[in-house]
Design brief:
By secondary structure, this protein is of the alpha+beta class. It has a three-stranded mixed beta sheet, with helices on one face.
Length: about 100
């Protein structure tokens, strides 16, 4: 009986932690998208969020340069909305935009 209760408690705890992580990730992605103008949204897409680092896929070196100039401003906006500890850095990579 006690083992079942511990199992249910651990499962509930893991689900809550997972939901919190997904929620933070979604807040970060939404904040990034909201911070981009219409033209930038066509060329930039959030790709991953691991170890407090957000990776953005960008479709060309030209846009990579433009976003790199805006990266610190974007990082400050995301940190303000999601928390300084939630995002330590934003990485830029050339990738396919879907």
């Amino acid at each position: 009986m006690a083992v079942e209760q511990i199992g249910k408690t651990v499962e509930a705890l893991l689900m809550a932690l997972s939901a919190s992580k997904k929620e933070t990730k979604q807040v970060i992605y939404d904040t990034i998208i909201e911070s981009l103008d219409a033209q930038e949204k066509k060329h930039i897409q959030p790709y991953s969020y691991k170890n407090n680092v957000v990776t953005l896929h960008i479709d060309s070196p030209t846009w990579m340069y433009a976003v790199n100039l805006k990266k610190n401003q974007l990082l400050k906006i995301v940190q303000k909305k999601a928390g300084i500890e939630a995002v330590k850095d934003i990485q830029l990579r050339i990738g396919v935009i879907k």
